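User: Good morning. I'm curious how NAP would be positioned relative to this chain. Could you predict the structure with it bound?
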Amino acid sequence: MTIAVIGTGRMGSGFVRELVSRGADVVIGARDAAKAEALASELGAKVRVADVASAVQAADVVLVALPYGAIAGALQGLKGLAGKVVVDISNPITDDFQGLLLGTTTSAAEEIQAALPGARVVKAFNTIFSQLLPASAREGKSVQVFVAADDAAAKSQVQEVARTLGFEPVDAGPLRNSRFLEPVGGMNIHFGFFLGWGPSTAPAWVRA
Ligand SMILES: NC(=O)c1ccc[n+]([C@@H]2O[C@H](COP(=O)([O-])OP(=O)(O)OC[C@H]3O[C@@H](n4cnc5c(N)ncnc54)[C@H](OP(=O)(O)O)[C@@H]3O)[C@@H](O)[C@H]2O)c1
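Assistant: Good morning! Here's the predicted structure, ligand included:
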């Protein structure tokens, strides 16, 4: 499975580092080639660098690590998108991190799916802080990744990516359940940053 990671920020670079360390076939797609090259050279020859369109074209699974507002614009109209698994990890939060830009009757993931009709959008990882991407930050702990999608095969591929990274994937139902997952991501930000729990915080669903 070839995984494209779009974006080289906190989440993008974290995914690239962890996936490469597990021997995954990774291509970095970025608007700033210099940032992508710098990340790749830090990691050695196993990771390729491309523009966003070529990275999407090359991949089976596209992990999109861009701000919510940039995602549709960055991917819309790309030829390689048809049938592609696109993972939306975004939390569509306001600039002050205190609120959500949308919700209740829709979600970032549903809006992205509507903007990219040929793609198979999967919601995942929005409740995982970048600081928790390194397996070393989770030693001895099982950390859940909630995965919501309408396409069963796409969901299963993303669950496999989560497992590869050492997370516990949890089937969170259809894509429209992103309406519930995104507020959970917002609450996690409150626990992590405004309520003092710190960035190793992550939500878990338990059967008592
Ligand atoms: N940080 C977290 O702990 C966390 C946790 C869960 C979910 N998320 C979600 O993950 C996503 C990425 O967050 P982050 O913290 O990694 O952000 P970040 O560190 O600010 O990185 C954002 C990345 O997006 C790129 N970008 C911004 N606008 C773009 C555009 N119009 N076209 C192409 N690339 C663009 C930036 O490229 P340049 O470097 O060229 O500006 C950068 O590589 C967000 O949707 C966020 O809600 C973040």
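The chain has one domain: 2-194. Strands lie at 2-6, 25-29, 47-50, 61-64, 85-88, 120-123, 144-149, 168-171.
Let me know if you'd like a different ligand tried.
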